[in-house]
Give the backbone structure.
Amino acid sequence: MTSVMVKNNMNVMEVVVDGRFHGPPGMGNGGYSAGLLAEQFVDGPVEITLKRPIPLDTSLSLERWAGGPVLLQQNGTILAEALTANLEIDVPIPPAYGEAVLARQAFGGFKEHPFPTCFVCGPQHDDGLHIFPGPIDGRALVAAPWTPHQALADDYGLVLPRYLWAALDCPGGIAVSTGAQPIVLGRITGEILGRLRVGERCVVIGWEMGRDGRKRFAGTAVFSETGQLIGRAKAIWFEI
């Protein structure tokens, strides 16, 4: 991202979502795209609403208003909006790392996946996050092991927040998916509470929080190797 203008209490930045950061073919991964907006806030929970598909490899405008929202736009059309928010969510106790490794073996996307090249959970994405959640026996949640690689780090070897937001995306969709109907992220409210180092073994979980017609509600969380809660979120998914 490159700052291009400051005007009338508004910072305007140019953003290009690289093609490798896609979810469904031809559109930006919802969690990664949300993370680009969320990074504009210093701290606290952020609510990001994805109003339209995020185009790839295209110059977009990221506008931050003083004391107001962050908007992602293309030629005046709002694609996504971020606001400060309250986040009330009870996060389950995570499974042990070994349990998450076993759960990964039962990831349904290995056999059938609506978006097999998704940056987060696509087994056919060579340079993705490779987060493949499977069910935990006896518990109403899915879990996956995750070891962030060097390409996700900042200059200090810490995973950039946008990738933590991406990790908080797909496990929720997998937790609420029936496999019969593709679903996409509509809104995610989350917060980053800590940082991960690249190469650190961690656990990502997702769980269902309810349904209402075409809407499905999910929670997600990322835990460090020591069990520290690094990030948490709740999301609304829609059948398409």
